[in-house]
Amino acid sequence: MGVKVQVTRPTKMELTRLKRRLKLATRIQKIVKDRLSILVMEFMQTVRECASIKESLLDEFAEAYKGLSLSTGYHGYMNLEQELMVSEKDIRINAGTRNVAGVRMPIFEIEKSESLQAKSRPMIDTSSILDRSIELSQKCLETLIQLAELQNSLDLLGTEINKVKRVNNALEFIVIPGIDATIKYLTMKFEERDREEVARLKYVKQLIEKKEAYAF
Amino acid sequence: MPSDKESDGFMSDYLKGELRTLNAQLPRRQKSLGALRKEEHPHVDCNDGSPHYFKKDEIEYLAEILDENEQSSLLLPIILEIKSDETGIIIRSKEGIEAKIFTKILGMEVSCRDDTVRIFKPQLGIIRKTLKTTTQYVFL
User: Fold this and answer.
1) Pick from A139, B80, B116, B126: most CB atoms within 10 A?
2) Tens-binned pLDDT, residue by residue, of chain B (140 aa)
3) Which H helix or E strand runs over A110?
4) B51 beta partners
5) Distance between CA atoms of residues B33 and B101, nearest Å
6) Considering the domain boundaries, does residue A182 fall inside one?
7) Total number of domains in chain A
8) Would you say B130 and B105 are in contact if contact means Cβ atoms under 8 Å apart?
9) Domain range enclosing A134
C-alpha cells in the first residue's frame, strides 16, 4: 500500500508538530490494540458460553417435551389445557445494561419471586408428572433468557470488534506510516537544505577569496 | 487537503473520544458489597451517566466467600487495570480481599503485594467468566 507524504509547509515547526502527532497516534494505537484484544477475549468467551447454553437448552427442551407429552397422556389434552390456563402466571424480567470496554451489553434476570415458584394450581386433578413438566418448562425459560442475553451481547461485541479493527488498521497502515514518511521526507529536505547551505557558503567563501586575490 | 491544525485537532479529538469511550464504563463511585446486597436492583452509575447493573447471583457468590467485615470493605465493581506496556493485569487492593476472591475462583494462591494483586491474561478469562458484572476494565 502506498504511503502519502502530506506536507503543507516544509518548516521545522511542522516537523515538531508531526513528531508530536506521531507520538499521539502511537499512543492511540496502543489503546485501540488493548481494547481490541479484550473485546476479542470477551467475544470468544461469549461464543463458548453461547454454544454450551444452546446445547443444554436443546436437552432441556427435549426433556420438557417428553414431560409434556407424558402429562398429556396422563391427564388428556383438554384437562391439561384447562389446568394450565388456570395456573398461568406473569413473569418479571429485570433488564439492565453492563459496560464492557465501551460496549453496552444487556443483562436479563428473571425475578425469582414466590409467585413464579409457588404452585397456584388447584391440587385436585394434578399429578407429579404435571409438576415435573412445569418445572422443566420453567427451566427452559430461564435458559432461553440467558441465551437471549448472550446472543445479543455477541452481536454487539462483533459489531464493535469490526469497528475497532477498522480503526486499528487505519492507524497501523495509513496514519502512522503516513506521518512517519512525512517526517522522513522533511528530515531529508532539511538535511538537503543544510548541505546546500554549506555548499553555498563554501562557494561564497571561494568568491571572496578570489576577489581578495584579484584585489592584490 | 486538510490543514495541519485541523489534522492535529482531529487526532487529539479522536484520542479524547477513545479515552472517553473506554472510561465511560468506570463508576463514578464504587459501592460496598454489603450496601449492594441491600439494594433491590444493585447498580452503580458510570462516568457517562448510564447505570451498570450487577447480577444478584454474582453478588451472592461474593457474599458467600467473604465475611461481614470484608463485605463492607469490598468495593464493587473491582477495577482491572490493563496497561499496554505490561503483560499482567493489576488490581489495586488495600486489604487483600480481592486476592482472597481470586484465590477462590482460580483455585490457586493469589498474593497481594504492595496493595497490588497481579494476575495474567489467561487467568483474566476465568475471572471474567465468574465475575462478569462485578469487574470492570480500565485502560491506562
Assistant:
1) B80
2) 445 556 666 666 776 776 676 677 788 888 888 888 888 888 898 888 888 899 888 899 999 988 888 888 888 889 888 887 777 788 888 778 888 888 888 888 888 888 888 888 888 888 888 888 899 888 87
3) strand A103-110
4) B45
5) 13
6) no
7) 1
8) yes
9) 12-164
Residue B139 phi, psi (nearest 5) = -100, 125
Of B1, B25, B128, the CB nearest to A99: B25
What's A53's domain CATH number? 1.10.287.3240
Residue partners of A5: CB distance under 8 A and separation at least 6: A178, A181, A182, A185
Q: For A22, which residue in chain B has the nearest alpha carbon?
A: B11
Binary contact (A96, B51; C-beta < 8 A) = yes
- Is residue A151, in this structure, part of any structural domain at all? yes
Predicted model pTM = 0.81
Domain presence at residue A179: no
What gap in Å lies between CA B132 and CA B54, rounded to an integer?
A: 9
Which residue in A156, A149, A34, A161 sits closest to B53, CA to CA?
Answer: A149
Give a yes or no: residue A125 inside a domain.
yes
Partnered with residue A104 across adjacent β-strands are A99
Nearest to B25 among A102, A107, A109 (CB): A102
Q: Which residues of B touch A104 (CB under 8 A)?
A: 50
Residue whose grid cell is 481470586: B102
ipTM reported for the complex, 2 dp:
0.82
Q: Domain-by-domain residue ranges, chain B?
A: 4-139
